[in-house]
Design goal:
The protein is α+β, with helices and mostly antiparallel strands. Helices cover about 40% and strands about 20% of the residues.
Length: about 220
């Protein structure tokens, strides 16, 4: 008897397998990060062609095999189509996906990480908040959710507004993160803090970040 499961999540990564298939990485609400095969997803006319691309968020019906998941159906509630029309936003978004792929694990409770990713991508699509600020908020909050953010660096004379902003980012619910803007000085200090801790605690380079840094 075949075993099926229904999950809610976002496609972090998709890569071609064989002539017509795809392997996808999905950050899920139920079981953390999983890998799955989408058979025939690259065929023209396939119902999974658009639904198994990066940024797709929705519900996925999976067949649970002996050694892998297989995507059978998908009901996408948000394709983040704006990413396809905004090159800069898409570059930031791809970095967010890559960072989440690094941070999250299978069978972990990654609900807050999924929520952070979703809200951060939404923030990139609004002009009211600069993409760079979205990035630094995303990086600092991701470190905090992963238990790696040690607080304000002790070797700097930080603006009081910067200290308040960091405290707000770390302590606020994800839904309320993208509700403020900052001065250029505070933005620069948030960059310094996020850059310092990323280099200190993350043990790899991110290809998408190289593109973001050159924008």
């Amino acid at each position: 008897m075949q075993e099926y499961t229904q999950i809610t999540g976002m496609i972090l990564k998709a890569e071609p397998i064989g002539e017509y298939d795809r392997r996808v990485v999905i950050l899920t609400r139920e079981t953390g990060k999983i890998s799955a095969f989408a058979r025939g997803a690259r065929k023209q006319g396939s119902r999974l062609l658009a639904a198994t691309a990066p940024f797709c968020f929705g519900e996925f019906k999976l067949y649970v095999g002996r050694s892998s998941y297989n995507v059978l159906e998908a009901s996408i509630s948000n394709y983040f189509e704006g990413m396809r029309e905004d090159f800069e936003g898409a570059c930031f978004g791809m970095y967010f996906l890559e960072l989440m792929d690094y941070y999250t694990r299978e069978n972990n409770d990654e609900k807050e990480m999924l929520k952070l990713l979703y809200q951060s991508l939404r923030a990139l699509m609004h002009e009211s908040i600069p993409n760079r600020l979205v990035r630094y908020i995303f990086e600092i909050k991701a470190m905090a959710l992963n238990g790696e953010f040690p607080g304000m660096p002790k070797d700097g004379a930080w603006d009081e507004s910067t200290e308040y902003a960091v405290s707000y980012i770390v302590g606020s619910p994800v839904e309320k993160l993208y509700t403020f803007t900052v001065t250029d000085r505070v933005l620069g200090e948030l960059k310094a803090i996020a850059d310092d801790y990323r280099k200190r605690y993350l043990d790899r380079e991110f290809k998408s970040l190289e593109i973001v840094d050159h924008l």
